[in-house]
């Protein structure tokens, strides 16, 4: 991963110094250096910039003014000789605020923060798994993680969560077919249980984290041992 970086400082010596810091860092790609906020703005219209390393006190438009003007702009590290700007800068959520002269260790730590922010931003957000049931004329969304267990009731399926229960017209076998992954365990012809809700497994029953007891059907006992117990046993007592 290369982080496209733009350096902005109206002082030529500082542009050169900060540029060298960027050049020697293996994660950073120095796209350009700019002597003003307006010059930097023009460069951002042409190049994809991931990071601004920006002075604050500059003529015409300050570094803080530039960042305020950007919508969904790059990440920012402010670099300045004036510590009293720190509070003003944090209104735009910079990655860091560095004081001149630059300390190499602090600079490296700042780039680690940039790396972390970019990594988090690039990770896709996967919604928690869920299903819908029909209730009257509405469709109700229920997250897998909210369900404790499900119980077959003639032509209905009673779905128990920690807060309430639902009873759609649905067979337990049909629900088992629709559920994705290996989150729920069929433990009886009438019961599906969320695996994380199981606290204790006895010979004939499951005890849930809520204290409720669910019977184990004879034909499902081997499956419970295979899927839920054997692969997760860390110790045995005789």
TrEMBL record:
Residues modified as 4-aspartylphosphate: 55
Pfam families: LytTR, Response_reg
Keyword entries, A-Z: Phosphoprotein
UniProt entry tagged with the keyword GTP-binding: no
Example GO molecular function: phosphorelay response regulator activity
Boundaries of every Response regulatory domain copy: 4-115
Domain called HTH LytTR-type: residue spans: 131-231
Domain of life of the source: Bacteria
PANTHER family reported for this sequence: STAGE 0 SPORULATION PROTEIN A HOMOLOG, TRANSCRIPTIONAL REGULATOR-RELATED
UniProt name for this protein: Two component transcriptional regulator, LytTR family
Organism: Spirosoma linguale (strain ATCC 33905 / DSM 74 / LMG 10896 / Claus 1)
């Amino acid at each position: 991963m290369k982080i496209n970086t733009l350096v902005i400082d109206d002082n030529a010596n500082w542009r050169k110094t900060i540029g060298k810091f960027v050049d020697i860092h293996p994660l950073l790609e120095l796209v350009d250096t700019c002597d003003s906020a307006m010059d930097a703005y023009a460069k951002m219209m042409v190049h994809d910039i991931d990071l601004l390393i920006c002075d604050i006190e500059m003529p015409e438009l300050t570094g803080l003014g530039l960042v305020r003007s950007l919508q969904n702009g790059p990440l920012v590290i402010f670099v300045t000789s004036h510590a009293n700007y720190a509070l003003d800068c944090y209104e735009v959520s910079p990655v860091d605020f560095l004081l001149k002269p630059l300390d190499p260790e602090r600079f490296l730590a700042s780039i680690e923060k940039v790396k972390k922010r970019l990594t988090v931003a690039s990770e896709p957000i996967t919604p928690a798994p869920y299903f819908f049931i029909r209730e009257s004329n509405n469709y109700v969304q229920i997250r897998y993680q909210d369900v404790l267990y499900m119980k077959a009731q003639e032509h209905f399926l009673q779905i128990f969560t920690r807060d309430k229960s639902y009873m759609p017209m649905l067979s337990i076998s049909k629900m088992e077919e629709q559920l994705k992954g290996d989150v729920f365990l069929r433990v009886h012809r009438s019961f599906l249980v969320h695996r994380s809700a199981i606290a204790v497994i006895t010979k004939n029953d499951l005890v849930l984290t809520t204290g409720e007891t669910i019977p184990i059907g004879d034909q499902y006992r081997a499956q419970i041992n295979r899927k839920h117990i054997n692969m997760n046993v860390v110790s045995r007592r005789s």
